[in-house]
Amino acid sequence: MFQSGDRNHVGPAPLSEAGRVLAFLDMGTNSIRLLLVRINPNRSYTLLLQQREVIRLGEGAFQEEQLQDAAMERAILAARGFAEMARSYGAEELVAVATAATRDAANREEFLERLAKEAGVDMRIISGREEARLIYLGVVSGLVLESRKAVFIDIGGGSTEVTVGDQFEHYYLDTLKLGAIRLSGIFLRPDETGPISEDRYALIRQYVSGAVVRTVQRVRHLEPEIAVGSSGTIMNLAEITLRRTRKRRLERNDTVRLDELQETIRILRELSLEQRRNVPGINPERADIIVPGAAVLETLLEEMGVTELMVSDRGLREGLLMDYLDRIGLFQGMSVRERSVFQLSRSCGFDEIHAREVARLALELFDSGAESGLHRLGRRDRELLYYAALLHDVGMFIAFSNHQEHSYYIIRNAELLGFDQKEIGIMAAVALHHRKKSPRKDHPGLTALDKDEKRLVRVLGMFLRLAEALDRSHSEAVERVGFGKITKKEARLDIFRARECQLEYWGVLELCEGFERVFGRALQVNLQEGNSLSAVSGE
Could you give the angle at which helices 379-391 and 403-413 cross, rounded to 10 degrees? Predict the structure, then answer.
């Protein structure tokens, strides 16, 4: 049997030179999911494998309050297969949790014993509120909310979890005995394959409405600004809706309107089961339970006064990982964006000391440039410069030669959580500017940007080039740097050195011509140490 990740847990085992492989297993009411991750010695992690299998563990369970024999057999078989898969990857630890179908079953202890004996999996049952907390951790790890409050809705097979929180903490956790499989068992016969009448759907909605009264009151009192939905039911409804209304697939953190969802639900319930299975975008395995699940979503959104829903592809499985990473302090104190950037950088084996130094210098140039009137860029632009500076050398993971191009490719194609595609494109283009000649105007990284974005990339790219030059020897020789007096014709750059920095000084002088092209001013470079000041023209 695997070492348990939670029973008798007294802290993470030390990392070996090869790192540690961990497995996270989420046994839900409808599906079982596996996530395999390697925690690397450099404090990054690598996603190795994601798997999902439909087991319908909750089939017939809620009416009789017993897990059915056939359902348990399916679950044990799938769990054994996933456990063997994890072992084949060298997993040392398995964090495995079970949710609504198992926790509500009278024969849950028998099921857990069989899982341990027949599958070699030490499964623990989590409460509904703990499930809500973990889902929140998983979903919020892929969003940038900052201080904005959001209501998080996750509709599973046996329960619905509702959380209100911001980027940093949750304020309310709740669980409702409302799920797609549970409601299907109550309101639909197993042999029922025709359309679902308006009266039947109204009956489901009435039942849901009665169950969510207190939850809706608490949520409305907390006044969330946005709503975020996760889980297979919500993602599938959003996928169908976007295929129907915008002729495209669901993308990360997409949004759909309530009126669009309502029309999708109306179409789905008016179709037979066989017709539903052929609807563009639907998961055929979900066709028989999607309408009851949709009733939960529609009722909650209406009664909470929500007109638009953001959709996340993250959930409990990712929450288990985030909870583990938080416990071992892997990305402690970092925002979603920063954690995502460091995860990518560390995975590429970057020189973290140099990257942090270049980022520091780049921000000193940005801030002093703003104070002196060199530019009028804002906080968002400063943040993108910071992340581009941290990422600028990731291309060396492929090769040193032409690594700015490799950096562009890696950043542009990375799934950086917390960023939209436009921001990722800007950061990639800024990193492309950090060395060698400026990229061609017809470079794919530039043609996708509009006029203002191209100007932004040129300015941020110049700050990054200067910062890179200021740590050319990777020795942290520059104590601080900043722009001094700025005139219409000239800008003064003051470099305060901590030690010998001739390489850095020459590197900056080489950029004077490019600086003038970007800012329309000649650059005067002043190298200063202590009380002595020598002024050298950069022309």
Answer: 120
